[in-house]
Specification:
Number of strands: 9
Number of helices: 2
Distance between the termini: 48 Å
Structural class: mainly beta
Length: 159
C-alpha cells in the first residue's frame, strides 16, 4: 500500500495557501497521478487514529487524528519556499492505494495540522479532525407561535 498526501500551508509573503503534494514512493506512475506533480517526501507510513469513544458511553468523544513525517528536502524540490511556510492549521488529505491504481485513490484521512516541528529537514505534522464546521448550531429556524406547523404560543421563538 502506498500513500499520497496534500498539504495546504500558508505562504506568509502572499497571505495565500499553497498546495504541496507528497508521495511515499519514487515511482513515475505515482508522481504524475491526477495530472499533478507529486514528490517523494513521505518518510514513513502515517499513523491514523479513529477511536471515537471508550465503549461505555461515559467518556467524551475523541476526535480522530494522524501523524505524518515528511522530508523537507523533498518538499523543497516541489516548492523552494516550503521551509518558510506556516503549517499550523493547514488542510491535509492523506490518500492510499497501490502503484498503478487509477485516480482517485481512497481517502484515508482529512484534517488540519494541529502542531508541527521542522527539525533537521524532517517536517513532522500532528493532525486532527477539523471540528470547526460542527461548532455552529445545526438548527436555526424558530417557531412563529401562530399555530399549526408554527406551533403554539408556548413555542414562539424556540428552535
Amino acid at each position: 500500500m502506498q500513500v499520497l498526501a496534500t498539504i495546504a500551508p500558508l505562504n506568509p509573503a502572499s497571505g495565500s495557501r499553497v498546495t504541496l503534494r507528497a508521495s511515499s514512493a519514487d515511482d513515475r506512475r505515482m508522481l504524475a497521478l491526477n495530472s499533478a506533480k507529486w514528490v517523494p517526501a513521505i518518510i514513513r507510513r502515517p499513523s491514523i487514529s479513529d477511536e471515537l469513544f471508550d465503549g461505555n458511553f461515559t467518556g467524551a468523544i475523541n476526535d480522530g487524528g494522524a501523524t505524518i513525517d515528511l522530508a523537507m528536502f523533498g518538499l523543497k524540490r516541489q516548492d523552494s519556499l516550503a521551509a518558510k511556510y506556516r503549517y499550523a492549521g493547514a488542510a491535509v488529505t492523506i490518500y492510499h492505494g497501490e502503484i498503478g491504481d487509477a485516480w482517485p485513490w481512497d481517502v484515508a484521512f482529512t484534517g488540519i495540522v494541529d502542531t508541527f516541528t521542522n527539525d533537521a529537514e524532517r517536517l513532522s505534522l500532528r493532525l486532527k479532525v477539523n471540528t470547526a464546521p460542527f461548532g455552529v448550531p445545526a438548527l436555526t429556524s424558530t417557531y412563529a407561535g401562530t399555530g399549526g406547523k408554527e406551533g403554539g404560543a408556548d413555542l414562539k421563538f424556540k428552535v
